[in-house]
Write a structure and sequence with these properties.
binds adenosine-5'-triphosphate; binds magnesium ion; single chain; seven-stranded mixed β-sheet; 421 residues; elongated
Amino acid sequence: MLSKFKASLAQGDSIIVEGPARVKVLKGIVEVFACPVGEGLELTVPLGKQAPVASVEGSELEVYSCSPPEHTKSNPIPESWRSLAEELAAQQKATCMVVGAPDSGKSSLTLFLSNTLAREGKTVGIVDSDIGQSDIGPPGVIGAAVLRAPAPSYSSISLLDGCFIGDKAPAGHLLQVVVGTYRMLDKCRQAGATHVIVNTSGMVYGGAARALKEAKIELIAPTHLAALEAQGELSHILKPIPKSVECIRLKVSEYARETGRSERIFLRESSMRKFLKDARRTTLNMDEVTLKQTILGTGRQLTEEDLSELRAQTRLSIQYAEESADYVLAVTDSGRAHERTMGGKPVKVVPRSAFSSLYIGLIGESTLLGVGILEHLDLARRTLAAKAALFKQGSISSVALGYLYLTEDGRELGRRKPGDF
Ligand SMILES: Nc1ncnc2c1ncn2[C@@H]1O[C@H](COP(=O)(O)OP(=O)(O)OP(=O)(O)O)[C@@H](O)[C@H]1O
Ligand SMILES: [Mg+2]
Protein backbone atom coordinates (compact mmCIF):
# COMPACT_ATOMS: atom_id res chain seq x y z
CA MET A 1 0.00 0.00 0.00
CA LEU A 2 1.54 3.30 -1.08
CA SER A 3 1.19 6.42 1.05
CA LYS A 4 1.35 10.00 -0.17
CA PHE A 5 4.22 12.21 0.99
CA LYS A 6 4.97 15.83 0.11
CA ALA A 7 8.53 16.96 -0.49
CA SER A 8 9.88 20.48 -1.02
CA LEU A 9 13.38 20.66 -2.39
CA ALA A 10 15.62 23.70 -2.64
CA GLN A 11 17.88 23.90 -5.70
CA GLY A 12 20.59 21.23 -5.44
CA ASP A 13 18.79 19.20 -2.74
CA SER A 14 18.15 15.50 -3.23
CA ILE A 15 15.86 12.85 -1.84
CA ILE A 16 16.14 9.07 -2.09
CA VAL A 17 12.90 7.41 -3.14
CA GLU A 18 12.52 3.73 -2.40
CA GLY A 19 10.62 1.66 -5.00
CA PRO A 20 7.90 0.80 -5.66
CA ALA A 21 7.06 4.48 -5.92
CA ARG A 22 5.68 7.21 -8.11
CA VAL A 23 6.91 10.78 -7.99
CA LYS A 24 4.81 13.64 -9.35
CA VAL A 25 6.57 16.90 -10.06
CA LEU A 26 4.12 19.63 -9.03
CA LYS A 27 6.57 22.50 -9.44
CA GLY A 28 10.11 22.91 -10.77
CA ILE A 29 12.41 20.42 -12.46
CA VAL A 30 14.12 17.39 -10.94
CA GLU A 31 16.75 14.98 -12.23
CA VAL A 32 16.95 11.21 -11.82
CA PHE A 33 20.28 9.69 -12.86
CA ALA A 34 20.78 12.76 -15.08
CA CYS A 35 17.35 12.48 -16.72
CA PRO A 36 15.37 15.70 -16.32
CA VAL A 37 11.72 15.39 -15.27
CA GLY A 38 9.75 18.61 -15.57
CA GLU A 39 6.68 20.15 -13.99
CA GLY A 40 3.49 18.13 -14.41
CA LEU A 41 5.41 14.94 -15.21
CA GLU A 42 5.67 11.73 -13.24
CA LEU A 43 8.35 9.13 -12.75
CA THR A 44 8.17 5.62 -11.38
CA VAL A 45 10.73 3.79 -9.28
CA PRO A 46 10.53 0.02 -9.65
CA LEU A 47 10.27 -2.34 -6.71
CA GLY A 48 13.68 -3.36 -5.36
CA LYS A 49 15.38 -0.22 -6.66
CA GLN A 50 15.78 3.26 -5.29
CA ALA A 51 16.26 6.48 -7.15
CA PRO A 52 18.01 9.70 -6.18
CA VAL A 53 15.76 12.62 -7.13
CA ALA A 54 17.72 15.89 -7.32
CA SER A 55 16.16 19.30 -7.61
CA VAL A 56 17.46 21.38 -10.51
CA GLU A 57 15.44 24.39 -9.35
CA GLY A 58 13.25 24.75 -6.27
CA SER A 59 10.65 21.98 -6.63
CA GLU A 60 7.51 20.63 -5.02
CA LEU A 61 6.90 16.90 -5.25
CA GLU A 62 4.25 14.38 -4.38
CA VAL A 63 5.77 10.98 -3.60
CA TYR A 64 3.65 7.84 -3.47
CA SER A 65 5.74 5.18 -1.73
CA CYS A 66 5.78 2.75 1.21
CA SER A 67 8.12 4.88 3.30
CA PRO A 68 8.81 8.62 3.41
CA PRO A 69 11.57 9.76 1.04
CA GLU A 70 14.90 10.41 2.75
CA HIS A 71 16.53 13.84 2.36
CA THR A 72 20.22 13.30 1.64
CA LYS A 73 23.08 15.12 3.35
CA SER A 74 25.28 15.00 0.30
CA ASN A 75 24.88 14.55 -3.45
CA PRO A 76 24.10 10.85 -4.11
CA ILE A 77 25.85 11.10 -7.48
CA PRO A 78 29.59 11.17 -6.72
CA GLU A 79 31.64 13.89 -8.44
CA SER A 80 33.79 11.18 -10.07
CA TRP A 81 30.67 9.92 -11.96
CA ARG A 82 30.14 13.40 -13.43
CA SER A 83 33.78 13.81 -14.50
CA LEU A 84 33.70 10.44 -16.27
CA ALA A 85 30.51 11.41 -18.11
CA GLU A 86 32.16 14.67 -19.22
CA GLU A 87 35.30 12.85 -20.34
CA LEU A 88 33.18 10.41 -22.41
CA ALA A 89 31.11 13.22 -23.89
CA ALA A 90 34.29 14.92 -25.06
CA GLN A 91 35.13 11.90 -27.24
CA GLN A 92 33.76 11.43 -30.76
CA LYS A 93 33.39 7.73 -30.06
CA ALA A 94 33.80 5.78 -26.84
CA THR A 95 33.14 2.37 -25.35
CA CYS A 96 33.01 2.30 -21.58
CA MET A 97 32.85 -0.97 -19.70
CA VAL A 98 31.45 -0.78 -16.16
CA VAL A 99 32.76 -3.24 -13.58
CA GLY A 100 32.03 -3.65 -9.89
CA ALA A 101 31.00 -6.10 -7.20
CA PRO A 102 27.27 -6.84 -6.69
CA ASP A 103 25.30 -3.77 -5.57
CA SER A 104 28.17 -1.38 -6.24
CA GLY A 105 25.92 0.73 -8.49
CA LYS A 106 26.84 -0.61 -11.95
CA SER A 107 23.29 -0.31 -13.31
CA SER A 108 22.88 3.16 -11.79
CA LEU A 109 26.19 4.38 -13.21
CA THR A 110 25.33 2.88 -16.63
CA LEU A 111 22.03 4.79 -16.66
CA PHE A 112 23.66 7.99 -15.39
CA LEU A 113 26.41 7.90 -18.06
CA SER A 114 23.94 7.00 -20.83
CA ASN A 115 21.55 9.80 -19.86
CA THR A 116 24.32 12.40 -19.59
CA LEU A 117 25.60 11.44 -23.04
CA ALA A 118 22.08 11.38 -24.54
CA ARG A 119 21.52 14.90 -23.18
CA GLU A 120 24.67 15.98 -24.99
CA GLY A 121 23.07 14.77 -28.21
CA LYS A 122 25.03 11.53 -28.51
CA THR A 123 23.46 8.30 -29.75
CA VAL A 124 24.18 5.97 -26.87
CA GLY A 125 24.24 2.19 -26.91
CA ILE A 126 23.77 0.17 -23.74
CA VAL A 127 24.86 -3.45 -23.54
CA ASP A 128 23.57 -5.18 -20.45
CA SER A 129 25.66 -8.31 -19.97
CA ASP A 130 24.59 -8.86 -16.35
CA ILE A 131 22.27 -11.80 -17.12
CA GLY A 132 21.34 -12.47 -13.48
CA GLN A 133 20.01 -8.97 -12.74
CA SER A 134 19.04 -7.80 -16.21
CA ASP A 135 18.03 -4.19 -16.66
CA ILE A 136 17.42 -4.44 -20.41
CA GLY A 137 15.49 -7.41 -21.77
CA PRO A 138 14.39 -10.59 -20.02
CA PRO A 139 16.48 -12.36 -17.37
CA GLY A 140 19.20 -14.60 -18.78
CA VAL A 141 19.53 -12.44 -21.89
CA ILE A 142 22.36 -10.06 -22.80
CA GLY A 143 20.35 -7.01 -23.83
CA ALA A 144 21.20 -4.18 -26.20
CA ALA A 145 19.44 -0.84 -26.45
CA VAL A 146 20.01 2.50 -28.13
CA LEU A 147 19.14 5.70 -26.34
CA ARG A 148 18.51 8.93 -28.22
CA ALA A 149 16.97 10.79 -25.29
CA PRO A 150 17.49 10.38 -21.53
CA ALA A 151 15.33 7.81 -19.69
CA PRO A 152 14.29 8.11 -16.02
CA SER A 153 14.50 4.33 -15.53
CA TYR A 154 15.31 1.17 -17.44
CA SER A 155 11.64 0.30 -17.80
CA SER A 156 11.26 3.03 -20.41
CA ILE A 157 14.14 1.75 -22.55
CA SER A 158 13.19 -0.69 -25.29
CA LEU A 159 15.18 -3.72 -26.29
CA LEU A 160 17.06 -3.42 -29.59
CA ASP A 161 18.25 -7.02 -29.60
CA GLY A 162 19.30 -9.72 -27.20
CA CYS A 163 21.55 -12.73 -26.94
CA PHE A 164 19.88 -15.60 -25.11
CA ILE A 165 21.95 -17.45 -22.50
CA GLY A 166 19.04 -18.63 -20.36
CA ASP A 167 20.78 -18.85 -17.00
CA LYS A 168 21.06 -16.67 -13.92
CA ALA A 169 24.87 -16.44 -13.83
CA PRO A 170 27.69 -16.50 -16.39
CA ALA A 171 29.44 -19.51 -14.75
CA GLY A 172 29.41 -22.36 -17.25
CA HIS A 173 28.73 -19.96 -20.15
CA LEU A 174 31.83 -17.78 -20.22
CA LEU A 175 32.43 -18.12 -23.95
CA GLN A 176 28.78 -17.48 -24.80
CA VAL A 177 28.67 -14.40 -22.57
CA VAL A 178 31.86 -12.93 -24.04
CA VAL A 179 30.75 -13.58 -27.63
CA GLY A 180 27.19 -12.39 -26.92
CA THR A 181 28.42 -9.17 -25.30
CA TYR A 182 30.55 -8.44 -28.36
CA ARG A 183 27.65 -9.21 -30.73
CA MET A 184 25.37 -6.82 -28.82
CA LEU A 185 28.06 -4.11 -28.85
CA ASP A 186 28.24 -4.56 -32.61
CA LYS A 187 24.42 -4.28 -32.89
CA CYS A 188 24.51 -0.97 -30.99
CA ARG A 189 27.20 0.36 -33.31
CA GLN A 190 25.28 -0.79 -36.40
CA ALA A 191 22.26 1.07 -35.04
CA GLY A 192 24.31 4.24 -35.00
CA ALA A 193 25.61 4.41 -31.43
CA THR A 194 28.81 6.44 -31.17
CA HIS A 195 29.09 5.87 -27.41
CA VAL A 196 28.39 2.48 -25.85
CA ILE A 197 28.23 1.68 -22.15
CA VAL A 198 28.72 -2.01 -21.38
CA ASN A 199 27.40 -3.12 -18.00
CA THR A 200 28.82 -6.37 -16.63
CA SER A 201 27.92 -8.92 -13.96
CA GLY A 202 29.04 -8.54 -10.36
CA MET A 203 31.10 -11.72 -10.72
CA VAL A 204 34.54 -10.40 -9.78
CA TYR A 205 36.09 -13.05 -7.51
CA GLY A 206 37.66 -16.39 -8.45
CA GLY A 207 39.22 -17.94 -11.52
CA ALA A 208 36.11 -17.90 -13.73
CA ALA A 209 35.41 -14.25 -12.86
CA ARG A 210 38.99 -13.22 -13.67
CA ALA A 211 38.90 -15.14 -16.98
CA LEU A 212 35.52 -13.64 -17.90
CA LYS A 213 36.57 -10.05 -17.23
CA GLU A 214 39.93 -10.48 -18.97
CA ALA A 215 38.36 -12.05 -22.08
CA LYS A 216 35.60 -9.42 -22.25
CA ILE A 217 38.11 -6.58 -22.05
CA GLU A 218 40.28 -8.26 -24.68
CA LEU A 219 37.41 -8.70 -27.18
CA ILE A 220 35.46 -5.52 -26.51
CA ALA A 221 38.59 -3.37 -26.34
CA PRO A 222 36.87 -0.56 -24.40
CA THR A 223 38.34 2.92 -24.58
CA HIS A 224 37.38 3.42 -20.91
CA LEU A 225 36.86 1.10 -17.98
CA ALA A 226 34.82 2.42 -15.08
CA ALA A 227 35.61 0.51 -11.90
CA LEU A 228 33.17 1.03 -9.02
CA GLU A 229 35.23 0.32 -5.97
CA ALA A 230 34.69 0.83 -2.25
CA GLN A 231 38.11 -0.24 -0.99
CA GLY A 232 40.42 -1.78 -3.56
CA GLU A 233 38.32 -4.92 -4.13
CA LEU A 234 38.87 -4.77 -7.91
CA SER A 235 42.67 -4.48 -7.93
CA HIS A 236 43.14 -8.05 -9.20
CA ILE A 237 40.81 -7.32 -12.16
CA LEU A 238 42.38 -3.94 -12.94
CA LYS A 239 46.09 -4.90 -12.79
CA PRO A 240 46.20 -6.95 -16.05
CA ILE A 241 44.27 -4.33 -18.06
CA PRO A 242 46.17 -3.15 -21.16
CA LYS A 243 47.60 0.39 -21.06
CA SER A 244 45.44 1.35 -24.05
CA VAL A 245 42.35 1.24 -21.83
CA GLU A 246 41.77 4.29 -19.70
CA CYS A 247 40.92 2.86 -16.32
CA ILE A 248 38.94 5.12 -14.01
CA ARG A 249 38.31 4.17 -10.40
CA LEU A 250 34.97 5.54 -9.22
CA LYS A 251 33.49 5.89 -5.79
CA VAL A 252 30.53 3.72 -4.85
CA SER A 253 27.74 6.11 -3.89
CA GLU A 254 27.16 6.23 -0.16
CA TYR A 255 23.50 5.65 -1.00
CA ALA A 256 24.06 2.38 -2.87
CA ARG A 257 22.28 -0.36 -0.99
CA GLU A 258 22.42 -4.12 -0.91
CA THR A 259 19.90 -6.43 -2.56
CA GLY A 260 19.48 -9.67 -0.62
CA ARG A 261 19.56 -13.09 -2.29
CA SER A 262 15.82 -13.61 -1.98
CA GLU A 263 15.16 -10.08 -3.23
CA ARG A 264 17.32 -10.86 -6.30
CA ILE A 265 15.27 -13.99 -7.03
CA PHE A 266 12.08 -12.00 -6.54
CA LEU A 267 13.26 -9.27 -8.93
CA ARG A 268 14.28 -11.83 -11.55
CA GLU A 269 10.97 -13.68 -11.24
CA SER A 270 8.96 -10.45 -11.45
CA SER A 271 10.80 -9.45 -14.61
CA MET A 272 10.35 -12.93 -16.06
CA ARG A 273 6.62 -12.82 -15.30
CA LYS A 274 6.35 -9.52 -17.15
CA PHE A 275 8.01 -10.93 -20.25
CA LEU A 276 6.01 -14.20 -20.19
CA LYS A 277 2.69 -12.46 -19.55
CA ASP A 278 1.36 -12.72 -23.09
CA ALA A 279 2.99 -16.04 -23.96
CA ARG A 280 1.03 -18.13 -26.48
CA ARG A 281 1.13 -21.87 -27.13
CA THR A 282 3.25 -22.63 -30.22
CA THR A 283 4.28 -25.87 -31.86
CA LEU A 284 7.59 -26.00 -33.66
CA ASN A 285 8.88 -28.67 -35.97
CA MET A 286 12.25 -30.02 -34.83
CA ASP A 287 13.31 -30.43 -38.47
CA GLU A 288 12.54 -26.81 -39.29
CA VAL A 289 14.38 -25.15 -36.43
CA THR A 290 17.96 -25.54 -35.24
CA LEU A 291 18.31 -26.47 -31.60
CA LYS A 292 21.04 -24.64 -29.72
CA GLN A 293 22.74 -25.09 -26.35
CA THR A 294 21.90 -28.80 -26.38
CA ILE A 295 23.26 -32.01 -27.88
CA LEU A 296 19.71 -32.96 -28.93
CA GLY A 297 19.43 -32.82 -32.69
CA THR A 298 23.17 -32.94 -33.34
CA GLY A 299 23.36 -36.70 -33.95
CA ARG A 300 21.93 -39.40 -36.22
CA GLN A 301 18.67 -40.88 -34.97
CA LEU A 302 19.06 -44.57 -34.07
CA THR A 303 17.03 -47.05 -36.09
CA GLU A 304 14.41 -49.18 -34.32
CA GLU A 305 16.83 -52.12 -34.49
CA ASP A 306 19.72 -50.19 -32.87
CA LEU A 307 17.30 -48.79 -30.32
CA SER A 308 16.20 -52.33 -29.28
CA GLU A 309 19.81 -53.29 -28.82
CA LEU A 310 20.49 -50.20 -26.72
CA ARG A 311 17.41 -50.96 -24.60
CA ALA A 312 18.64 -54.52 -24.04
CA GLN A 313 22.14 -53.37 -23.12
CA THR A 314 21.07 -50.59 -20.77
CA ARG A 315 17.83 -52.16 -19.47
CA LEU A 316 16.25 -48.73 -19.78
CA SER A 317 12.99 -47.85 -21.45
CA ILE A 318 14.56 -45.65 -24.08
CA GLN A 319 12.12 -43.83 -26.29
CA TYR A 320 14.52 -42.10 -28.60
CA ALA A 321 18.26 -42.06 -29.11
CA GLU A 322 20.73 -40.41 -31.37
CA GLU A 323 24.44 -40.82 -31.84
CA SER A 324 27.03 -38.24 -32.75
CA ALA A 325 30.82 -38.49 -32.93
CA ASP A 326 31.24 -37.67 -29.25
CA TYR A 327 28.01 -38.74 -27.49
CA VAL A 328 25.02 -41.02 -27.49
CA LEU A 329 21.90 -39.27 -26.25
CA ALA A 330 19.21 -41.57 -24.90
CA VAL A 331 15.84 -40.10 -23.93
CA THR A 332 13.92 -42.32 -21.51
CA ASP A 333 10.25 -42.40 -20.48
CA SER A 334 11.13 -41.80 -16.86
CA GLY A 335 13.96 -42.13 -14.36
CA ARG A 336 16.80 -39.77 -13.57
CA ALA A 337 19.39 -38.13 -15.76
CA HIS A 338 22.82 -39.76 -15.64
CA GLU A 339 25.82 -40.51 -17.77
CA ARG A 340 27.37 -43.91 -18.51
CA THR A 341 29.87 -45.28 -21.03
CA MET A 342 29.28 -47.83 -23.74
CA GLY A 343 32.00 -49.01 -26.10
CA GLY A 344 34.16 -46.14 -24.88
CA LYS A 345 31.55 -43.51 -25.75
CA PRO A 346 29.69 -41.44 -23.14
CA VAL A 347 25.93 -42.07 -23.14
CA LYS A 348 23.82 -39.25 -21.75
CA VAL A 349 20.62 -40.71 -20.39
CA VAL A 350 17.94 -38.06 -20.00
CA PRO A 351 14.29 -38.52 -19.02
CA ARG A 352 11.83 -36.84 -21.39
CA SER A 353 10.58 -34.74 -18.49
CA ALA A 354 14.00 -32.99 -18.30
CA PHE A 355 13.00 -30.98 -21.37
CA SER A 356 9.72 -29.77 -19.90
CA SER A 357 9.52 -26.36 -18.22
CA LEU A 358 12.90 -25.30 -19.60
CA TYR A 359 13.40 -21.61 -20.31
CA ILE A 360 14.04 -21.14 -24.04
CA GLY A 361 15.12 -18.41 -26.42
CA LEU A 362 13.37 -18.02 -29.78
CA ILE A 363 15.76 -16.76 -32.39
CA GLY A 364 15.21 -15.44 -35.91
CA GLU A 365 17.72 -15.08 -38.75
CA SER A 366 19.86 -12.55 -36.92
CA THR A 367 17.93 -11.38 -33.89
CA LEU A 368 16.28 -12.60 -30.71
CA LEU A 369 12.51 -12.72 -31.31
CA GLY A 370 11.33 -13.78 -27.89
CA VAL A 371 11.62 -16.11 -24.94
CA GLY A 372 9.40 -18.90 -23.71
CA ILE A 373 9.02 -22.13 -21.85
CA LEU A 374 9.36 -25.55 -23.42
CA GLU A 375 6.29 -27.55 -22.44
CA HIS A 376 6.65 -30.82 -24.21
CA LEU A 377 9.01 -32.60 -26.54
CA ASP A 378 7.34 -35.13 -28.86
CA LEU A 379 10.19 -37.14 -30.33
CA ALA A 380 7.92 -39.40 -32.37
CA ARG A 381 6.30 -36.46 -34.15
CA ARG A 382 9.51 -34.43 -33.88
CA THR A 383 7.71 -31.40 -32.44
CA LEU A 384 8.33 -28.97 -29.61
CA ALA A 385 5.35 -27.50 -27.81
CA ALA A 386 6.18 -24.24 -26.11
CA LYS A 387 4.68 -21.15 -24.54
CA ALA A 388 6.25 -18.38 -26.56
CA ALA A 389 6.38 -14.68 -25.72
CA LEU A 390 7.52 -12.86 -28.83
CA PHE A 391 8.63 -9.25 -28.59
CA LYS A 392 9.57 -9.05 -32.29
CA GLN A 393 7.93 -10.35 -35.43
CA GLY A 394 9.77 -12.81 -37.62
CA SER A 395 10.18 -16.43 -38.40
CA ILE A 396 11.79 -18.58 -35.70
CA SER A 397 14.84 -20.30 -37.13
CA SER A 398 16.41 -21.61 -33.94
CA VAL A 399 15.50 -22.42 -30.38
CA ALA A 400 18.15 -22.16 -27.66
CA LEU A 401 17.56 -24.31 -24.60
CA GLY A 402 18.24 -22.40 -21.42
CA TYR A 403 19.25 -23.72 -18.03
CA LEU A 404 16.39 -22.62 -15.78
CA TYR A 405 13.22 -24.59 -15.10
CA LEU A 406 10.32 -22.18 -14.76
CA THR A 407 6.63 -22.19 -13.96
CA GLU A 408 4.31 -20.56 -16.50
CA ASP A 409 4.45 -17.34 -14.53
CA GLY A 410 8.23 -17.27 -14.32
CA ARG A 411 8.96 -18.76 -10.89
CA GLU A 412 12.28 -20.60 -10.75
CA LEU A 413 11.90 -24.33 -10.11
CA GLY A 414 15.46 -25.50 -10.65
CA ARG A 415 18.39 -25.53 -13.00
CA ARG A 416 19.95 -27.84 -15.56
CA LYS A 417 23.72 -28.00 -15.32
CA PRO A 418 25.64 -26.47 -18.24
CA GLY A 419 26.84 -29.29 -20.48
CA ASP A 420 24.22 -31.75 -19.16
CA PHE A 421 22.38 -32.45 -22.39
N1 LIG B 1 24.27 7.03 -6.81
C1 LIG B 1 23.25 6.41 -6.24
N2 LIG B 1 22.29 7.11 -5.62
C2 LIG B 1 21.23 6.50 -5.04
N3 LIG B 1 21.04 5.17 -5.05
C3 LIG B 1 21.98 4.43 -5.65
C4 LIG B 1 23.13 5.00 -6.27
N4 LIG B 1 23.89 4.00 -6.76
C5 LIG B 1 23.23 2.86 -6.49
N5 LIG B 1 22.10 3.12 -5.82
C6 LIG B 1 21.08 2.16 -5.38
O1 LIG B 1 21.74 1.03 -4.83
C7 LIG B 1 21.13 -0.17 -5.30
C8 LIG B 1 22.18 -0.99 -6.05
O2 LIG B 1 22.58 -0.25 -7.18
P1 LIG B 1 22.60 -0.89 -8.63
O3 LIG B 1 21.40 -1.71 -8.86
O4 LIG B 1 22.90 0.21 -9.57
O5 LIG B 1 23.89 -1.81 -8.42
P2 LIG B 1 24.44 -2.98 -9.33
O6 LIG B 1 25.91 -3.00 -9.12
O7 LIG B 1 23.95 -2.82 -10.71
O8 LIG B 1 23.76 -4.23 -8.65
P3 LIG B 1 23.64 -5.72 -9.24
O9 LIG B 1 24.89 -6.39 -8.82
O10 LIG B 1 22.43 -6.25 -8.55
O11 LIG B 1 23.47 -5.61 -10.71
C9 LIG B 1 19.94 0.25 -6.18
O12 LIG B 1 18.75 0.27 -5.42
C10 LIG B 1 20.29 1.65 -6.59
O13 LIG B 1 19.17 2.41 -6.88
MG1 LIG C 1 22.86 -4.13 -11.94
